Amino acid sequence: MRRLKNLPGFAGKEKTSNLGELRIAGDQSASKKISQFCVRLEAKQRLRFNYGLTERQLLKYVRVAKKTRGSTGQVLLQLLEMRLDNIIFQLGMASTIPAARQLVSHRHILVNDHIVDIPSYRRKPKDILTIRNRPTSRNAAKSESLGGNETPDHLILSLPKNGEPTGLVNHMVNRESVDLNINELLVVEYYSRKA
Asked: What is the pLDDT of residue 67?
């Protein structure tokens, strides 16, 4: 975690620290030359670990982003941000992306009133996400911090007093609302020979 600096999806939003900033200051004093390959590799690793993806999954997302119209880096971030496990994390229903992945795979999440147990399930605008109305689902979500942090502008979280928390996807995510300090073009450049 110190090497890859601040990863909110991996360590949680509130648990991030200044360890990465201390390392950066130390690296500048060492004046060790870092190759371009190393810079691209680190950007790829940060993206991969933040979203909890395998190498094969990230390569598949890069290939899909290259075939889609638009900037490949922005399309890649849109694909990753619209994953179900990431949206559960962004809504505050889970403290980290791995915790959100566990909620989804244990069938605690409903999307448009249907059970979805695939964490990589791609969300679309106007989708409604709720926690199942079961005691075990409510207990799993209560152990997480609901609504503790600010939700991005493409999502809405409603916390009714008697009902279950409900999340709504307003629109597709844009680059400004992604709270991740990664240059996505470096990731695309890293995979330019493989994809």
From this structure: 93
